[in-house]
Amino acid sequence: MEELDKGLEISIQGAKADEAVAAMLSQVKEWELSMPPVEPLVLDFGLGDFTHIGLIEYWIANEALPGYCGKYLYVTDGQTCPMHWHKTKHETFFITKGRVRMTLDGVEREMGEGEVLPVEPGKPHSFTGIGPALLLELSMPCEIDDNYFEDRNIPIGGNYKKQQS
Q1: pLDDT score at 10
Q2: 79 close to 24: Cβ distance less than 8 angstroms
Q3: pLDDT attached to residue 60
Q4: CA–CA gap between residue 29 and residue 35 (Å, rounded)
Q5: What residue ranges do the domains of the chain occupy?
Q6: CATH class label, 2-164
Q7: How far is CA 84 from the centre of its chain?
Q8: DSSP H or E segment with residue 56
Q9: Among 30, 37, 87, 154, which is least packed, fewest CB within 10 Å?
Q10: Which residues touch 58 (CB under 8 Å, ≥6 apart)?
Q11: How far is CA 90 from CA 118, 123, 124, 162, in A?
Q12: CA 47: distance to chain centroid?
């Protein structure tokens, strides 16, 4: 999974990552769920403020040829996956556990367990945990360079790559 390797290159490593994953797994166990047997991505988006801007991703599958991707996305209370969009990827989010404040194309909504939100390519979106939350993302295959972040200080994605050229 080449894209997963790119993600692992920019993920938080070491004691801080281990602590975040342990806390997440404790919450998941409390919810009586389990996570897939894959290495999680503990992301702070290169901003060094995981408590406020970050998430933990478990990539279930990222299958380019068949054309699908499935990931679990976990955020803590007040933690945000920053505003971004994709040029080609269409995503659908399913709130598995907890609540999130989801912003899609400038419209903010609170979403809870069982709710579904499709996100078309080109639509800016972000989400923030209202308490701990677990989302299931079903989408087209993930390509790291198809992430375009509003915050140009985030050192990954398509717009960052263009800045470096």
Answers
A1: 78
A2: no
A3: 95
A4: 9
A5: 2-164
A6: mainly beta
A7: 11
A8: strand 55-63
A9: 37
A10: 35, 36, 38, 40, 41, 71, 72, 74
A11: 8, 9, 12, 22
A12: 15
To which residue do tokens 């281990």 refer?
18
57 sits in which H/E element: strand 55-63
CA dist., res. 139 & res. 97, Å (int): 19
**What radius of gyration do the chain's Cα atoms show?**
15
Confidence at residue 1, expressed as pLDDT on a 0 to 100 scale: 54
Residues of the chain with confidence (pLDDT) below 50: none
Q: What is the DSSP string of 85-153?
A: E-SS--EEEEEEEEEEEEEETTEEEEEETT-EEEE-TT--EEEEEEEEEEEEEEESPP-GGG-EESSTT
- Tokens describing residue 105: 């194309």
Burial 115-146, CB ≥16 within 10 A → b, else e: eebebeeeebbbbbbbebbbbbbbbbbbbbeb
pLDDT for the residue 164: 60
Q: How far is the C-alpha of 164 from the C-alpha of 75, rounded, in Å?
A: 30
Q: Which residues pair with 127 in a beta bridge?
A: 81, 102
- Rounded to an integer, what distance in angstroms lies between the CA atom of residue 73 and that of residue 70? 10
